[in-house]
Amino acid sequence: MGCGGGSKEASPSTASPGKSGPTTTLFNIPDDKFVDLTGEATVEVNVVDNTFEPSFLQVSPGTRLILTNNGRNEHNVTPVAADSFEKVPTDDFAPGKKASITAPSSPGDLAFYCSIHGTKKLNGQSGVVRVVAG
Amino acid sequence: MRGTQLRTTLLAPALVAGLVACGDDSSDSASSDSKSADDSSAPAAEVIAVPADQPTIQEAVDVAEPGALILVSPGTYNEEVTVETDDLTIRGLDRNDVIIDGEFARENGIKVFSNGVAVENLSVRNHTGNGVFFTGDYGKGVTLSGYRASYVTAYNNGLYGIYAFSAEDGQIDHSYGSGHPDSAFYVGQCQDCNALLTDNVAENNMLGYSGTNSTGVTIVNSVWRNNRAGIVPNSLYTEAFGPNSGSTIVGNLVEDNNSSTAPESASFAVAFGNGIVIGGGSKIIVERNTVSKHKNAGIVVTDLPTSKDPADDKEKSFKPEGNQVRENVLSQNTFDLAYLTVNYASQPFGNCFEKNSFTSSFPEGIEKSMSCGAPVDTDLGDLSGILARITAGPPAVDYKTVAAPGPQENMPKAATAKAAGAKGPASVDLASITAPKG
Prior knowledge:
The complex is a heterodimer of chains A (134) and B (438). Chain A is 0% helix and 36% strand. Chain A is an all-beta fold. Chain B has 438 residues and is mainly beta. Chain B is built from three helices and 33 strands. The chains are: A mainly beta (134), B mainly beta (438).
C-alpha cells in the first residue's frame, strides 16, 4: 500500500520540456503502463473524480482524443510542457462536458494533468499520451 | 530557493535548550493525539521557518527533507501549496492568524500527494476548490498512505474544506469547516480508509461530513450543526469501491441541520433537513449520538442518492444493508428515525434500529418491524408515503458570501511541539463514549 511519495510512479527525467509539440521521454514511465491504442483515429478518455482513464495512452500521430468529464467535480486538462497543446480550462470542462485534443504528427510524449487534482510531476490526476510512429 | 537563507535545525547549538523544551512538550502536544507519537531516540527534525528562512510556504516545502517541520508565522499567504515530499509537518504558529487565502482565484490551499504529511494549526479560505486536499491517484493504482489535519480551520472554499481521496490511514481532528458547497470534511474512494474524525465542528456547509465509497471511517465526538445535512456517508457509482461500508459514527452532537444560509450541492440537495443519512451504505454503526431539530429525519437509512452507473449508463442506487442504529438520543425531528428504499423492495435487508430514545419514526414502530435480528425480508409495506412529506431545501447560497467563523482553539504549544507527521489514526475507545448533551 502507498505510493512512496511523489516520485515512485513517475519520475521526471533530465530531458527538457519542449516549447511546442510533444517532448521525448519527459517522464520515465515503463512501456507496460501504456494502453496501446495505436491505429485508432479517435480514442475516448474517461475523466472521473479524480483520475484520467486511461492515464497512459499510446496512440498514432494525429489521433483525436475525446475527453469526457464523467465525474461530479470540476476538472481541467493542462499541458505539462507549456504550449504543447491548448489547455482545456475548468470553465469549459464542467461535469458532463467533452473536450478534444489532437495528438501531434511527430512521435514523443505529451504529458498532462488536472491542475486542481494533480501536478506537473504527474502525481495525482495526470497522464501521458505517447505518440508512436507507424 | 534563496541559498543564503538560514535553514535551522533543532540540532544547532544555539537551539539545544529548545530541543529539551520540545522533548518536554511532546507528551501533551496535539501530535500526541496521533499514533505517530514522538520517538525520543529519533533524530530531531529540520525546522524551516516561514518567512524567516523561506519567504513562502511553497518554497519551504520545496527545500524540505522528509521529516521536516515547516513553521509558519502569522500572516496572510496568497499562495497554493503543493506537497510532493513525504513526512512533512506544516504548522502555523497561530491557527487564526496564519491564513492561506485563495482570493477566490486559486484552486486549493494545500494539496498533498505524499505519504505521512500533517497540516496543523492554520486557516485555509477562499479557494475555488478545496482547503486542504490529500490524494493518491486511483487511475495509476496509487493510494496515499498516512495523512493528518489537526486544528485546521477551513472556510468558504468552493468544494470541500478538508478532502481526503484515494488516501488511507488518516486523521482529521480539532478542525473546523464552514461555507462549503459540498462538505466540510470528506473521506472517499478508499477500500480500507482507516480514518478517524474526532473533535471537529462543521457548520454552514451543504454537508458536514460526506464520504463516498469509503470503508472504515470512524467519526466520533464532533459537532455537526446548521448545515443543510449533518453526517452523510454515501455510495455512488461515479467513484470506485462502492458501496460505503463498515464505518462507525459514535458520540456526535448533530443538531438543526436545516440551514438556509449554507451553500448547496445539487447532487445532495435531497439530503436537506436530515441529521445523519446512511445513503446506500452497508454495515455502518450509528450509536450513542444526540440528534435533534431536523425538518426531515434525525437519522435516516436509505438507498438515496442515485447516480449514473457508467457500466450501463443507468441511474441507480445502492441497497442499504446491515446498518445498525442503536442507543441514539433523538428529539424534535419531524421523524426521529426513518427508513426509505426507493429502488428496492420495502424490506429491512438487515438494517436495524434498537434501544434508541425517540418519539417518532417512519415507518411507525420502526424498532419492532426492523429490530436487530428481525428477518431481512419482512414486508414493511409502502414506504413511498414519506416522499410527499419531505421538506425541500431553500435556494442555494453562494459559498463566497457565507459569514467567516470566529476564532478557533489553537493547537497547544504550537511553537515547540515536535513534528509528528502522520503515521495513522489514533486508537479510540468507542465503548467509553457516551451520547453528548444536546
